Amino acid sequence: MKPQKYANKNHKFRKMVTREWAEYEKNKLMKKKWKKLLMPEVIDTLPKKLANNFASFKFDHVDTEVNLDANIFLHGGIGKGKTVDAAYYYVDKVKQIYMKRGSLIGTTFHFINFPEFFMLMQNRALEAHDLIQKYMNCDVLVLDEFGVSNTTSFVDNSLYVLINGRSVNQKPTIFTSNFTLDKISEIYDSRLVRRIENDDNCVVIEK
């Protein structure tokens, strides 16, 4: 909110108002830079179809008050718009990081298709450690289409390391899934669901 100007000669009061105006102007410039320069770069990291159509999507229905470090679990049937909403939250969380830090230098974020990631872990076990480290340490991660049956103990353990590491380090993860969390607990180790729930710091949204 724009601070008010007051005709007051009290030094401390004027100093406080000056700080408020300086912060206001700083935030205004940051938001302008975000909209003109940084947001398009973040959108370009989305899957091509999402990136090309992002400007046309309507997000009036989404919850805009989600904490930066909260996980988000979007679940529902096919074609309900889970991936589109995940794209919004992905971009919004990167924006929150930018507004908090004042820069995106050193910030990493990934939007990945979980079935492809799952197959990669299964087929390239030697590279799995590097993949887990890469995605465990990024600032924002989307696991789109989460929940694949016929899993293995190796994949279960790898996923637990990934999601637990992100939870411990307060790195937000956004999931989209055709399954509820109860169903996910039947597919994977139940410990994984507890890590997704992130000590109750998880927003579960049914589409």
Summarize the entry for a quick read.
By secondary structure, the protein is an alpha/beta fold. It folds into 2 domains: 1-43; 48-206, P-loop containing nucleotide triphosphate hydrolases (Rossmann fold, 3-Layer(aba) Sandwich), CATH 3.40.50.300. The chain has helices at residues 11-43, 48-53, 82-101, 114-123, 125-137, 153-168, 181-187, 190-197; strands at residues 71-75, 109-113, 140-144, 173-177, 202-206.
The total tally of domains equals 2
- What is the CATH H-level superfamily of the largest domain? P-loop containing nucleotide triphosphate hydrolases
**Number of beta-strand segments:** 5
Give the termini distance in whole angstroms.
Answer: 32 Å
Query: Which architecture of the largest domain does the CATH hierarchy give at level 2?
Result: 3-Layer(aba) Sandwich
What would you call the structural class? alpha/beta
In the sheet with the most strands, the strands line up as 2-3-4-1-5
> What's the CATH class label of the largest domain?
Alpha Beta
Estimate what percentage of residues fall within beta strands. Answer: 5-15%
**What level of helicity do the residues show?**
40-55%
Order of helices and strands: HHEHEHHEHEHHE
The CATH topology name of the largest domain reads Rossmann fold
Mean pLDDT: 89
- Write down the overall geometry: elongated
Q: Uncertain regions: pLDDT < 50 for 5+ in a row?
A: none
Query: Rg, please?
Result: 20 Å
Q: DSSP helix count?
A: 8
Largest sheet: 5 strands, parallel
